[in-house]
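Deliverable D2.4 — example input (structure tokens):
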């Protein structure tokens, strides 16, 4: 079976969502047993978080989200809240801050310390530490990630990397993303696979789940308009959300975070829509 043919398994043909008969067992085997495990990447509601972080978290809890991933903003890693404040707020709302996106820069140690104080299990680099779509830069970045993993391990936090589309470009015939996987070790560097961007880049998620089983404990769950390279509400784009979950166990999935970057209405309306869509699968 060709890579192109396999990739098409992840692209919706048309019409309503079709959930395979074995979808629910795969969820159960992966440990995702109920809507209690539905997470959201807060970049989805970034403007709302910057305007009223506590109020927005309360609205997300009312929708039903119980797991959260933060993202670095102009007000810091927690949208103006301190690590202790976001930990307390989410706990009081029946939510948990699982992960956070940061940069490996001059504030790196502070990001680690803040994540530990906030009670996070994961700290994720959202960008490469170096510049350039070259084998050499990805090799250097992989080495930096190994050191970052060691730094995080000291405080019982798992370090990881989140991809976009550019990682699946090639240099000298080699897929750059593969360098990060081949040059790092699973104990120190986890991968958060943004499934929407993988597919938009023309890559095949199944290939990575098969070749690197257990390396992807975190997912960004995202529907995409492939032609426009834009995210959209679940079921309105070209990604079969249900088919992706067939590979939950093989990937090593522990947590997934819904993420949507563009909207047809408001960010909170999209967050509600996507939550309802996924919760019907569970």
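Example output (designed residues):
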């Amino acid at each position: 079976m060709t890579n192109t043919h396999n990739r098409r398994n992840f692209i919706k043909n048309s019409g309503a969502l079709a959930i395979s008969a074995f979808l629910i067992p795969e969820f159960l085997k992966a440990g995702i047993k109920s809507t209690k495990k539905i997470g959201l990447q807060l970049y989805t509601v970034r403007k709302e978080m910057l305007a009223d972080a506590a109020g927005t978290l309360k609205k997300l809890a009312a929708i039903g989200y119980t797991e959260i991933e933060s993202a670095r903003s102009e007000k810091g890693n927690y949208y103006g809240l301190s690590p202790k404040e976001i930990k307390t707020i989410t706990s009081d709302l029946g939510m948990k801050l699982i992960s956070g996106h940061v940069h490996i820069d001059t504030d790196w140690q502070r990001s680690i310390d803040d994540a530990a104080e906030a009670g996070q299990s994961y700290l994720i680099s959202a960008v490469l530490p170096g510049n350039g779509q070259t084998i050499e830069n990805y090799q250097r970045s992989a080495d930096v990630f190994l050191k970052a993993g060691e730094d995080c391990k000291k405080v019982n936090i798992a370090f990881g990397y989140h991809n976009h589309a550019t990682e699946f470009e090639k240099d000298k015939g080699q897929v750059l993303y593969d360098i990060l996987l081949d040059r790092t070790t699973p104990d120190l560097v986890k991968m958060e696979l943004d499934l929407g961007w993988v597919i938009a880049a023309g890559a095949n998620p199944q290939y990575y789940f098969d070749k690197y089983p257990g390396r992807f404990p975190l997912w960004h769950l995202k529907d995409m308009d492939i032609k426009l390279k834009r995210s959209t509400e679940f079921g309105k784009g070209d990604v079969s959300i249900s088919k992706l979950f067939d590979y939950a166990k093989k990937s090593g999935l522990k947590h997934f975070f819904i993420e949507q970057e563009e909207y047809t209405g408001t960010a909170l309306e999209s967050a509600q829509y996507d939550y309802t869509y996924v919760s019907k699968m569970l």
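DSSP finds 13 helices and twelve strands in the chain.
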